[in-house]
Design brief:
The protein is α+β, with helices and mostly antiparallel strands. The chain has three domains: 6-75 and 152-228 and 310-376, FAD/NAD(P)-binding domain; 97-146 and 387-476, no CATH class; 236-307, no CATH class. It has helices spanning 13-26, 54-60, 65-72, 108-117, 129-135, 155-168, 284-293, 338-351, 360-386, 394-401, 406-418, 431-440, 457-476, 481-489; strands at 6-10, 32-37, 75-77, 79-83, 91-95, 150-152, 172-175, 178-183, 190-195, 200-202, 205-208, 225-227, 236-243, 252-257, 260-266, 270-277, 304-307, 311-313, 317-318, 321-323, 329-330. It has a seven-stranded mixed beta sheet with strand order 5-4-14-15-16-13-17. The protein has a six-stranded mixed beta sheet with strand order 7-2-1-11-20-19. A three-stranded antiparallel beta sheet has the order 8-9-10, with no helix packed on it.
């Protein structure tokens, strides 16, 4: 391949316009960037929850937080509340904060486990400010008390916000449906997209953002797909928007049901709702009835069904095509990783960008990191289904007995037997996240690291009490989340 100067993005939506905005802002001086999309083709547009690294991308792109939040109806997110996962009636929050204080030999949960043995009943989350602020519906942007947060946002509006930004930065938008993907007869590389109106869009590097279809990466290049249905039984989702009768909470709700789970994502003036379920254990009609009976306000849209096959492309980058978003794979939205994976794919592409021509080494590095990241997210998501004591439906009995990825089997066994958690290279979730979810779903280690016994009893009690009081005082000083948004956005 010769040097890369013309980049063509196939498809808009969150993935396409995030790619256009990022490439034009950070690499745009040396590239001609064209995005091809059709107004006739809708986007999935339900990915309304994010995780904290999105703020890093926004800083790189010089996005003004207030302008972004106003444009996307965004609220702040401190974590996810999981309900009915370990057992019916259980509730815990996977928050974005650091819990307690760790030492070199072990994380804070070892201290907490000692305290439990000594009769302390304080919940694990009480030692994390983000956890307590979420419970109390509080939030602030405060230099002295920095919170680790993400956003709830309107995905369709987010795509429009990024589109305006990208077009200001010189991205060319071409309207039209792709009729044919043209390839070089010798190399098999993509050479151009032919549109239904007869226009041809040529390029050196193509980014596939065509959603589940994978028009370039799969239908044209036949890259292959790793189907993970044997690990993740849910294959369907229903999505509907409703009014919000209450002030928006600073967390997502994930409520487990008989054959899947339901999300509630509070924006400024409405709530995004959905039900993720297994069509093997629940039909669409029953799923729709269940969802509509459990939304907090008046419906604003008609529910729509989304089908998916959990898994990933065998290669995220193949020949001169990089797949982003749903075109690269889909694990399911349980931990709000979809937008994050677009971002990490983009950052990885920009770091490896083939200005002087595409090389096998760059492709292999991209794909190795892509595989590692997807495998780690798979482990984290599957753990929610596997670490459960529920046996009250055929779906949950299946989850309790299903095969687990070997890497997850090891992580669970290590935690249960020793209390230890070690992260893999591709893990986007920190030890705090793993421990909050494992403890929240009733996985209890048989021991803790003896290093915590180095503290005398009085010293240990002062240490634990001091941490809890610090969190309580900091939380008490925070304003209510909805009130802060009104004040912040003016």
């Amino acid at each position: 391949m010769n040097s890369i100067s013309d980049v063509v993005i196939a498809g808009g939506g969150t993935a396409g316009w995030m790619a256009a905005a990022s490439l034009s802002k950070l690499l745009g001086k040396s590239l001609n960037i064209t995005l091809v999309e059709s107004d006739e083709i809708g986007t999935v547009g339900v990915g309304e929850a994010t995780i904290p690294p999105i703020r890093t991308l926004h800083k790189l792109l010089d996005i003004d937080e207030r302008a972004f939040m106003k444009a996307t109806q965004a609220t702040f997110k401190l974590g996810i509340q999981f309900e009915n996962w370990g057992q019916q009636g259980d509730s815990y929050i996977h928050s974005f904060g650091i819990t307690g204080r760790e030492c070199w030999a072990g994380e804070f949960h070892h201290f907490w486990l000692r305290a439990q043995q000594e009769g302390m009943t304080t919940p694990f989350g009480a030692f994390c400010l983000e956890h307590e602020a979420a419970l109390e519906n509080k939030f602030a942007l405060h230099q002295q008390v920095p919170l680790n947060f993400a956003y709830h946002l309107d995905a369709t509006r987010y795509g429009q916000f990024l589109r305006e930004m990208a077009q200001r930065q010189g991205v060319t938008r071409t309207e039209g449906k792709i009729a044919k993907v043209m390839q070089c007869p010798d190399s098999g590389y993509i050479s151009a997209l032919q549109l239904q109106n007869g226009d041809t869009v040529r390029g050196d590097l193509f980014i596939d953002c065509t959603g589940f279809r994978g028009l370039l990466i799969e239908q044209t290049l036949h890259t292959g797909y790793d189907n993970w249905s044997h690990y993740l039984p849910c294959d369907s989702a229903l999505a509907v928007q409703c009014s919000n009768p209450d002030a928006p909470k600073p967390y997502t709700r994930s409520i487990a049901h008989q054959a899947g789970w339901q999300w509630q994502i509070p924006l400024q003036t409405r709530v995004g709702n959905g039900l993720v379920y297994s069509s093997q254990y629940q039909d669409d009609s029953d799923a729709q009835t269940l969802l509509m009976q459990n939304i907090p306000g008046e419906p604003l849209t008609d529910p729509r069904v989304i089908r998916f096959t959990p898994g990933k492309r065998r290669k995220g980058w193949h020949k001169n095509c990089v797949a982003l978003g749903l075109a690269s794979g889909f694990i399911e939205p349980l931990e709000s990783t979809s937008i994050h994976l677009i971002m990490t794919g983009l950052v990885r592409l920009m770091r490896l960008f083939p200005f002087n021509g595409i090389t096998d080494a760059a492709i292999n590095e991209y794909n190795n990191k892509f595989d590692s990241e997807m495998q780690c997210i798979l482990d984290f998501i599957v753990m929610h289904y596997a670490a459960t004591e529920r046996r009250d439906s055929e779906f949950w009995r299946h989850c309790a007995s299903m095969e687990l990825p070997p890497s997850l089997q090891h992580k669970i066994a290590l935690f249960k037997e020793t209390g230890r958690v070690f992260l893999d290279d591709g893990d986007i979730f920190r030890v705090d996240s793993w421990t909050q979810v494992m403890l929240g779903q009733r996985l209890k280690p048989q021991q803790y690291h003896p290093i915590v016994n180095e503290m005398s009893q009085p010293e240990f009690q002062r240490f634990m009490h001091g941490l809890q009081m610090q969190v309580k005082q900091q939380c008490n000083a925070l304003p209510e989340h909805g009130a802060f948004i009104k004040q912040y956005l003016g």
